[in-house]
């Protein structure tokens, strides 16, 4: 536990850790201000397929909608912020020449790598919770409360979730988002144990995420067959908490698969780190 | 010459019959117009139940305000979806002066005598390209409204009535929708990779209760409606 807090102190004493929080705050606040100023345009684009046939009344563009909208837009970008820390947490020891000093101290390698991994997960969780708070609090203050309309454009479907159900669903969705992002963190963490510098793990992780996302979304049969084997396919399972009815089986499957990825990636990192040759 | 005269006479006879038939058809709208001439306004509680794959929503409730001839407002504390066509009762929509009316058939509807009329708007720019009404001639009630297929759209409203004050007004309207989505031009028939154009298909059940009729609604009430609707 001491090691964990020590590692947490180390990452939060680096200025690069705060880049992610700063950029997220900037992007979210800018988005919310722009959405406030161009509410009608956003509503028109979102509801275009329905407005010809349905009159729509009420506060559609409310704080919950803004939060879901931003989450939907940012779930591809958040991994980059996660890799900034997760990709650096082990490799930075090699870069700064402190790896030998670290490993000759009493705590075992296993304890050190586990503490570093838990710190990575802590940072990832903190970042997603920060995103949630920075979306929800100003969102509700600026746009008010109300039912949530989820527009699944790819499925050509609109789901209306009653206001009373939204906070719980939002909590579940953010928990799922944290779970999804831990896979990115685990991947970056593994790359970090393999590399001697921080750039490689950061770029490597982002390359994997982007390539997987692209392959998983190509509308060709071959890539459709491939998509169940890509972890990025399951990373958007947080969206399922806004579906009606909530597909619990699909959610459980995605969560388990992502969890298995986490275990697998950490185990590889664990083995690699324990066998790491620091003499040469 | 005799042949020409015979043909001209025949044509004259046929065209007279046609005009006569049209006049006959439009007269079915007269009793409805007369029946609801005293309906100036109403307020009613609405419950909407959606059974549409493309729109998943719980039952929605609102208060609907209507003022003749064409003012409508919906008041709801929550988000509320309401069908643009056929969702509420406006007897002023079916004034015979606005339509070319043709009798399609006589039929029995719910064990009562009925007629089916095709109404084509005189205004060629009208959004609706035509309506088919099924009218219960015994009670002078519109039982079905079918918006004639135009741009691939089909909307059918079936109405059940109840007596509220001095008027028979809809207690329930069942809407069947099959309409294409409003996608950018060029995307309507085929979307990417040969997928079929998306459609909004399904049923909407609208139930009305607690009518308050001719309460003297002012025009001011309806002014804020436009600002509350998302554009």
Report on the structure:
- The complex is a heterodimer of chains A (280) and B (231).
- Chain A has one domain (2-274).
- Chain A contains twelve helices and three strands.
- Chain A has helices at residues 2-12, 17-37, 39-51, 63-74, 78-86, 91-95, 99-103, 109-143, 166-194, 199-217, 221-226, 248-274; strands at 54-57, 148-152, 157-161.
- In chain A, β2 (148-152) and β3 form a beta hairpin.
- In chain A, 69% of the residues lie in helices and 5% in strands.
- Chain A is mainly alpha-helical and 280 residues long.
- In chain A, α8 packs antiparallel against α12 (248-274).
- In chain A, strands 2-3 form a two-stranded antiparallel ribbon.
- Chain A starts with a helix and ends in a 6-residue tail after the last helix.
- Chain B is of the alpha+beta class.
- Chain B has one domain: Lipoprotein localisation LolA/LolB/LppX (outer membrane lipoprotein receptor (LolB), chain A, Clam).
- Helices cover 17% and strands 47% of the residues of chain B.
- Chain B contains three helices and twelve strands, in the order ααββββββββββββα.
- In chain B, strands 4-3-1-12-11-10-9-8-7-6 form a ten-stranded antiparallel sheet.
- In chain B, a hairpin with a 2-residue loop joins β9 and β10 (153-164).
- Classes of the chains: A mainly alpha (280), B alpha+beta (231).
- β1 (54-57) of chain A pairs antiparallel with β5 of chain B.
């Amino acid at each position: 536990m001491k090691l964990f807090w020590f590692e947490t102190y180390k990452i939060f004493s680096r200025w690069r850790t705060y880049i992610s929080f700063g950029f997220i705050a900037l992007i979210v606040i800018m988005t919310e201000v722009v959405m406030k100023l161009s509410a009608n345009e956003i509503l028109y684009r979102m509801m275009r397929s329905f407005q010809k046939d349905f009159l729509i009344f009420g506060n559609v563009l409310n704080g919950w909608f803004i939060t879901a909208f931003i989450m939907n837009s940012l779930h591809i970008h958040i991994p980059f912020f996660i890799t900034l820390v997760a990709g650096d947490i082990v490799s930075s020891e090699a870069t700064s020449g402190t790896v030998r000093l670290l490993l000759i101290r009493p705590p075992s390698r296993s304890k050190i790598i586990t503490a570093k991994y838990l710190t990575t997960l802590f940072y990832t969780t903190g970042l997603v919770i920060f995103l949630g708070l920075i979306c929800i609090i100003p969102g509700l203050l600026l746009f008010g409360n109300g039912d949530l309309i989820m527009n699944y454009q790819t499925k050509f479907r609109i789901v209306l979730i009653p206001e009373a159900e939204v906070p719980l669903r939002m909590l579940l969705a953010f928990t799922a988002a944290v779970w999804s992002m831990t896979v990115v963190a685990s991947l970056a963490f593994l790359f970090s144990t393999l590399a001697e510098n921080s750039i490689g793990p950061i770029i490597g992780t982002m390359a994997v995420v982007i390539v997987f996302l692209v392959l998983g979304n190509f509308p060709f049969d071959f890539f459709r067959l491939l998509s169940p084997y890509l972890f990025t396919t399951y990373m958007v399972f947080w969206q399922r908490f806004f579906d009606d009815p909530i597909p619990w089986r699909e959610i459980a499957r995605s969560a388990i698969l992502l969890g298995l990825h986490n275990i697998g990636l950490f185990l590889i990192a664990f083995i690699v780190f324990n066998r790491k040759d620091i003499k040469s | 010459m005799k042949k020409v005269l015979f043909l001209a006479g025949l044509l004259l006879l046929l065209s007279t019959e046609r005009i006569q038939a049209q006049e006959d058809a439009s007269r079915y709208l007269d009793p409805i117009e007369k029946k609801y001439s005293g309906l100036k306004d109403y307020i009613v509680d609405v419950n909407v139940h959606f059974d549409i794959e493309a729109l998943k929503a719980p039952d929605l409730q609102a208060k609907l305000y209507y003022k003749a001839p064409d003012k409508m407002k919906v008041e709801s504390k929550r988000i509320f979806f309401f069908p643009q066509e056929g969702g509420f009762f406006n007897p002023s929509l079916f004034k015979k002066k606005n339509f070319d009316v043709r009798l399609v058939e006589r039929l029995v509807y719910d064990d009562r005598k009925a007629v089916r009329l095709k109404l084509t708007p005189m205004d060629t720019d009208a959004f609706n390209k035509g309506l088919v009404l099924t009218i219960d001639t015994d009670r002078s009630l519109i039982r079905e409204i079918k918006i004639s297929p135009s741009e691939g759209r089909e909307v059918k409203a079936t109405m059940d009535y109840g007596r509220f004050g001095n008027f028979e007004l809809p207690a329930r309207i069942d809407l069947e929708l099959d309409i294409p989505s409003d996608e950018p031009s060029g995307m309507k028939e085929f979307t990417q990779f040969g997928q079929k154009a998306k459609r909004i298909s399904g049923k909407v059940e609208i139930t009305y209760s607690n009518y308050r009729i001719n309460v003297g609604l002012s025009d001011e009430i309806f002014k804020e409606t436009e600002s509350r609707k998302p554009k």
